[in-house]
Amino acid sequence: ALTPDGAAMASLGAHPRLARMLLVAAGAGAAELGAVLAALCGAGRDVIPKGRGTGLGACLGLRVLALAGAGPGAALLDGRAARVVLDDAAVLYGQLRRAMGVLERQRQAGAEEEEDEGGYGGADTSDEEDDAEDSEQEAADASAVLTAYGRGPAARARLAAAAAAQASGGGSGADPTSPSSSSATSALVGALVAAAYPDRVAVRRGRGNRGRDAAFDLGGWADGGGGAPPAASSSASARLPDPLDALQAAPLLAVAALASSAPGRSPIILAAAGLDPGHPAVRGVPGLVTEEC
């Protein structure tokens, strides 16, 4: 039988990786950010197709900001691709609201069953009444899917602004266009990408500087403890093709998309985010972090 989390993931109708991202985002109070990131990861085209040489490179966090008209990528945004991503994100957000309702009701039902088993008994609700309540709740859930953000320019702008505020670490009420929010994205972006792609954690080789083509070891990492730097747990490698990529100096990346390169060369990283292994959302992903004494 599915666990409550598994049932909620199945109800989303999204790829399991993205469903996991969405549930972790909801648990972190960043459902809008999770929906936008999932839509970006599932999109067929980049919302900033001409980002090479601009410092935007493969950075997903800067793309979230750009969708809200913030940060250095706003001027390079592909309007058509952005509209598709935000429309998809609105649907995912509505589905996530429904899934979280399902999850909460399952948890409540489990708690009530435990109470009944330890209680003194009493009148049971009939199957007909239970079915009627379930039908009413399903209708309400379906309505939530349609009314969460909707479609159109205004709805897309509200969703993008909420996601950008969460990406910048300021919460849904923050202003994503302020200099403090636009300068960098929070560790939550990397944590959500890692939740979906725990097998694509990449450790930078060497010091890594912007202006150089940095290489990363893929497959995971091990925390040596005592302040020791992270060490790669596999020998597979990948690289950021843009020497000016804002992620070149990051010690750890959560990689969402890779592409093959020229024969004999490492794959290139198309979409990623910087990763802070100490973030609570990262620590909550089973099997992502290992500790070696």
List keywords for this structure.
8 strands, alpha+beta, globular, 3-stranded mixed sheet, 10 helices, 293 residues, 5-stranded antiparallel sheet
Brief summary of the model shown:
With 293 residues, this protein is of the alpha+beta class. It is 46% helix and 11% strand.
Distance linking N and C termini = 37 Å
DSSP summary: helix tally:
10
Q: What oligomeric arrangement do these chains adopt?
A: single chain
- Calculate Rg over CA atoms: 21 Å
Write up what this structure looks like:
- It is a single chain.
- The protein is of the alpha+beta class.
- 46% of the residues lie in helices and 11% in strands.
- The chain has ten helices and eight strands.
- The protein has helices at 4-12, 16-27, 31-42, 60-67, 79-118, 127-147, 153-167, 179-182, 187-196, 280-283; strands at residues 201-204, 215-217, 221-223, 231-232, 237-239, 252-259, 268-274, 290-291.
- The strands form two sheets. A five-stranded antiparallel β-sheet has the order 5-2-1-6-7.
- Helix 2 runs antiparallel to helix 3 (31-42).
- The longest helix has 40 residues, at 79-118.
- The chain is globular, with a radius of gyration of 21 Å.
- Mean pLDDT is 75; it is low at 142-146, 173-184 and 221-233.
